[in-house]
Write a structure and sequence with these properties.
The complex is a heterodimer of chains A (691) and B (91). In chain A, 38% of the residues lie in helices and 19% in strands. Chain A has 23 helices and 26 strands. In chain A, the strands form five sheets. An eight-stranded mixed β-sheet of chain A has the order 18-17-19-20-24-23-25-26, sandwiched between helices. In chain A, strands 3-2-4-5-7-6-12 form a seven-stranded mixed β-sheet, sandwiched between helices. Chain B has 91 residues and is α+β, with helices and mostly antiparallel strands. Chain B is elongated, with a radius of gyration of 19 Å. Chain B starts with a strand and ends in a 5-residue tail after the last strand. The chains are: A alpha/beta (691), B alpha+beta (91). β16 of chain A pairs parallel with β1 of chain B.
Chain lengths: 691, 91
């Protein structure tokens, strides 16, 4: 029997995935999607889903893993949001070329890197013409069901194209990714009857029957692209068929390509897509009650664009008002509006079309907004320019300048970080030591809120881009003849060590004039403590779960400072917020040198690691006193340990202080002690090695 | 439709730093006991928000406007001179 469970849109996606039984799940957290990953990690840890779970170091690899696994013929699931979508784009574009039927969830987020987490469709819209099928779900139930349908459609031999299942994220009215609602979870047996096992349909990389890539002529490639486009056209009937058969198996439908709601007898219609459609539905119900005859057309599938269905439907209305949640800059309108106009253009009789661009960056779109739109559709006599919701006139004013001259560099202010944030503590001392003459780049992790408002020239980089933005700053300062100002980069372990490791390694190899500080909280904490390469062995994080089939992170922490040192950087040091004078001395030393200088600071996140907030310094101190976090410096003189604990404290005391290690067995604690001892021993060897 | 008029700089940058006062997050506040305070300055050193300042006699005291009440100062104080007192503190 199907059962009802309370779940969010993200969790509904995870349930849809679990029931579809993929064999590979490739993961990288990005707000607002991580709950999908966390729920899947939980299923796997509990032995309820049997799949390889790949915790990648960034969205680029996240998608590329899917290319490899699907090419071997294994059902694969991916998920992303916003900037992650953009970062994975090269691989996203490659998937349809290979005709790999991957399903990827997109928890929609604005494609902007100014820290916004609000929803609009500017992320997935950039991928609309690549050959992916694009579903936009209205509800959590639809999200769960659509994942299952999407696999069936994508893997159909008539289609063999990837599919995106998009759900809208953070906005005040319809918060699909995060609002928990009752959802019916179908029986596994029924799903198995609907979705056959996947064995790789058209090509497989297998040693027994070797297939290898061939080079094609431009004309052949063009023909191949036309075939992809044909397959996408063909997918329309498969999407409709998959939804019809879904009704037979599960007793509910999601209206195939598009839904008509209260269109019978309506004079005009509102056309929209995604979770906003629920708001529109309520507005339209109210208008019918008041005698206004307006229907709702809900696009469920945006690619392939249901052209024929819309042509048929359009003839019934005097006016259709289209509400888009994206702005195609340079056209002044939304993508659905453009496509609908094009679809209807050659009709001799066609409705008047009104265009609205709504709710960008997560601005709420309300029932009132839809009522206004619907009434406008009823009253419209002629086409007017595209309007925005909320109705807005934006104008530019000059950048604010400080009238009273230069303010103190480190201002008296609270930070936007959590109470007791060790990064805020580190930031304050770092900024004091760095002095006035710097240009600061901060990557897009926790570091942004952890810094107090400061009167420094400061720019946020993308999460991967920090070392490259700092390179540009350093070179521009040099080009201007400014040899005094320092290009400073402050980033996190996830930003610098994982997703941004390539730019970091590049800047190191070029020995760019950058002073780089890594604040290491041993996870991707801005998205909710999901593991990073810096997370230690055995640690629980929401995507390295603990259960009967999993024991936290299965591999040790990446040793970033020594990897940086291996690049031959002129100055590399480790530091801790428990040893502030040591940290400040190292910044002073680094400041006096040129080239790429790197200081790696341990900043224990009480909330992510699980200990009381007043203990950040104590836990940092324990890390140092147990040799879990040795303090040293590497220069052309070799490696020098800068602090030796007088009495070695057992690692177990450090572990015991934190919830993330609570599950460890005595054997696992012993293994960690051994790792720490070995690493400390190696440092000793490095210290005594003559250069 | 009534149009909202929004004036905004070309990019999100400003030269004018507005201090944030997040004291409303605080459930308990640090109170320094001068009798046991040794003026070592550890509270000021380890405060994540940097709210501690020194008075004329060299004693440290917190600026409550910016303090979030995390309690790191009280936990680190070697002489136990800081109490975390429930808000609203007496007076």
């Amino acid at each position: 029997m199907p059962r009802i469970e309370l779940m969010t849109g993200n969790e509904a996606i995870a349930w849809g995935v679990r029931l579809s039984r993929p064999k590979v799940i490739s993961a990288f957290p990005i707000t607002p999607q991580p709950r999908i990953l966390e729920k899947l990690a939980r299923f796997i840890a509990d032995g309820e889903l049997d799949a390889e779970y790949v915790n990648t170091e960034g969205d680029y690899s996240m998608v590329a893993v899917g290319i490899g696994s699907e090419a071997v013929g294994v059902r694969t699931f991916l998920s992303t949001s916003g900037q992650g979508f953009a970062y994975g784009y090269e691989n996203i574009a490659y998937v349809p070329v290979l005709r790999l039927p991957i399903v990827m969830a997109v928890s929609n987020r604005v494609l902007a890197t100014s820290g916004t987490v609000g929803t609009d469709y500017s992320d997935s819209m950039t991928g609309r013409d690549l050959g992916w099928i694009q579903y936009y779900c209205e509800t959590a139930q639809e999200a769960l069901d659509t994942v299952i349908q999407a696999y069936r459609v994508a893997e159909d031999p008539r289609v063999l194209l990837p599919a995106m299942v998009c759900i809208s994220g953070i906005e005040p009215e319809r918060y699909l990714t995060h609002t928990a609602v009752p959802v019916e979870v179908p029986d596994q047996g029924v799903v198995d009857g609907y979705l056959p096992p996947y064995g790789g349909a058209h090509f497989k990389l297998e040693p027994e029957r070797p297939l290898s890539g061939v080079r094609l002529t431009a004309e052949e490639l063009m023909a191949m692209e036309l075939n992809q486009a044909k397959a996408l056209e063909r997918s329309k009937e498969v999407i409709e068929e998959a939804d019809r058969e879904f009704l037979e198996h599960f007793g509910r439908t999601h209206d195939g390509l598009l839904e008509r709601y209260r269109c019978e007898g309506a004079d005009s219609a509102v056309l929209t897509m995604g979770a906003m459609a629920s708001t529109a539905r309520e507005a339209i119900d109210e208008l019918w009650d008041r005698g206004a005859k307006v229907g709702l057309i809900r696009l469920r599938v945006f690619r392939p664009f249901p052209r024929e269905e819309l042509v048929t439907l359009a003839k019934e209305f005097k006016t259709i008002a289209v509400v888009d949640r994206c702005l195609a800059r340079g056209t002044g309108e939304g993508a659905i509006f453009t496509d609908l106009k094009a679809a209807l253009y050659n009709l001799s009789e066609r409705p008047l079309l009104l265009g609205f661009v709504a709710g960008l960056h997560g601005v709420g779109v309300t029932q009132e907004d839809f009522k206004t739109v619907a009434l406008r559709a009823l009253e419209a006599e002629e086409a007017v320019g595209v309007e925005t919701i909320p109705a807005m006139e934006a104008s530019e004013r000059p950048i604010e300048r400080e009238p009273t001259g230069r303010l103190p560099r480190v201002s008296n202010s609270s930070t936007r970080g959590c109470a007791g944030c060790p990064m805020s503590l580190a930031f304050r001392h770092i900024m004091e030591s760095l002095g006035d003459n710097i240009v600061l780049v901060v990557d897009g992790g926790c570091g942004t809120p952890a810094a107090a408002p400061m009167n420094f020239p400061r720019i946020a980089s993308t999460l991967p881009g920090g070392a490259a933005v700092s390179t540009g700053v350093a070179r521009a300062l040099k080009a201007k003849g400014d040899h005094k100002a320092i290009s400073v980069l402050i980033g996190g372990d996830g930003g610098l060590g994982d997703i941004g490791f390539q730019p970091l390694s590049g800047a190191l190899e070029r020995n760019e004039d950058i002073l780089c500080i890594c604040l290491d909280n041993e996870a991707n904490n801005a998205t909710g403590f999901q593991r990073s390469g810096s997370t230690p062995y055995g640690a629980w994080t929401p995507i390295t779960e603990v259960g009967k089939a999993a024991r936290g992170k299965a591999v040790p922490k990446k040793n970033l400072p020594l990897i940086v040192a291996a690049h031959g950087a002129p100055y590399v040091a480790t530091a801790s917020v428990s040893n502030v004078p040591d940290l400040k001395r190292k910044i002073e030393e680094a400041k006096k040198m040129g080239g790429f200088r790197y200081i790696h600071v341990l900043t224990p996140c009480h909330y992510g690691w699980g200990f009381p907030m007043e203990r950040i310094v104590e836990v940092s101190r324990l890390a140092v006193e147990t040799n879990v976090w040795p303090l040293y410096r590497v220069t052309d003189q070799g490696l020098r340990i800068t602090y030796r604990p007088e009495e070695r404290v057992p690692v177990s005391e450090y572990l015991r202080a934190q919830k993330r290690f609570r599950h460890l067995s005595p054997q696992e604690v012993g293994a960690l002690q051994e790792m720490v001892d070995r690493a400390w021993g190696r440092l000793g060897v490095l210290e005594t090695t003559k250069l | 439709m009534r149009r909202k008029v929004i004036e905004i700089p070309i990019v999100p940058f400003t030269e004018v730093i507005r201090p944030k006062k997040l004291a409303s997050w605080r459930l308990v506040r640090p109170v320094v006991n001068k009798e046991t305070c040794s003026k070592c300055g550890d509270c000021a050193l380890y405060c994540p928000e940097g709210v501690f300042v020194q008075d004329d006699e060299g004693y440290y005291y917190p600026t409550y406007d910016y303090c979030k009440g995390c309690g790191v100062c009280a936990h680190e104080c070697p002489t136990g001179a800081i109490d975390m007192v429930e808000e609203p503190a007496g007076g």
